[in-house]
């Protein structure tokens, strides 16, 4: 089923409110935004609406480890607090959300499908048919389709058709990118949200959301990779010719650097986190052996903290960061999209703020690297403009980009949500009609 209808003219694009929830390993963030149709000619990257954030709430994450819900009660509590704060600020009640999905061994696959047109014009139903045929191939036991996206259409032998509606041919073909994830982590994430009396409108893969928020037009068109380094996971997405063509995730993030430091310097996790933020760097400096950092040893109530050279700390940080980046480099090369990315890599996510990380990434990935912050959204408080909020902002952008996305009627993706006919049903109806 197609989640959103055609674009239509400006008059059919109504304003509305959209709520998104980013459940991460280090924070849970909820944003409520008003979407207003753009009236000016120049749209930002195919976006049809302007986004104004009217409510935001974020909480320290609980019960989530490496992007997976491991404790339903604690996760539910954190989600409830974040959503309550956003609701209070926006002055409205929320009952359904767009949520991102990081865990569940995300896997990208490419499929092709062709249907017979018999010489008539291609219309919406033909597109649905060919997308459905492509998505069917990806359905496997215990896996759920999170996204099935057309990368390009072909008519007869002509490839590279962006929108085949109204065109004539005998055979309509599509090349698709289908992203799947394990069903169980998706179910548990949904469960922890349902227990807060909220329903999931749509699940979006974190790498897709982060890329939508952090990449600029030219990067999307020419091809670029977006690496989102979170607390418990790092995701990578590749965009080419404006399309999301590959996604992947690894269960290593900023928390692992903190853990390594706590172990290596035998100090508490809180102290290690503070040291990492204040003094941590992935880049050795010339004065590191002379610069001393004071550390409170674990379980020691003595007043005298230990003094260690900063270089000891840098070595611990650098070992983990290098390992993570090498893993990402190998994943990128294996994906077959290394060439599409060219020299363009954007780092985002909370853990991308570590000092010296862009330099380390340039060295290991052998590409140009910049830090990406969420773009094109008004009303974000200063504290939420940093790279840590890219995934949440990307979820606000997502509905406008999803015009061709098809969803098999199985499982979560098929909007098998409770409360049909209620406000949730109207919300999805609004989304379908508006974009």
Describe the structure in your own words.
The two termini are 15 Å apart. It is built from 12 helices and 18 strands. It has a 5-stranded mixed β-sheet, sandwiched between helices. Strands 14-13-12-17-18 form a 5-stranded mixed β-sheet, sandwiched between helices. Strands 7-10-8-9 form a 4-stranded antiparallel β-sheet. It is α+β, with helices and mostly antiparallel strands. Helix content is 33%, strand content 29%. The radius of gyration is 23 Å and the shape is globular.
Gist of the model:
Pfam families: FtsA, SHS2_FTSA. The chain is an alpha+beta fold and 435 residues long.
The Rg value, from CA coordinates, equals 23 Å
**For the largest beta sheet, what order do the strands appear in spatially?**
3-2-1-6-11
The proportion of residues in beta strands is 25-35%
Distance between the termini: 15 Å
pLDDT averaged over residues:
86
**Which stretches are poorly predicted, pLDDT < 50 over at least 5 residues?**
1-13, 408-424
Work out the helix count: 12
How would a crystallographer describe the biggest sheet? 5 strands, mixed
Category by helix and strand content:
alpha+beta
Q: Could you estimate the helical fraction of the residues in percent?
A: 25-40%
InterPro entries: ATPase_NBD, Cell_div_FtsA, FtsA/MreB, SHS2_FtsA
GO biological process, one term: FtsZ-dependent cytokinesis
Subcellular location: Cell membrane
Protein name: Cell division protein FtsA
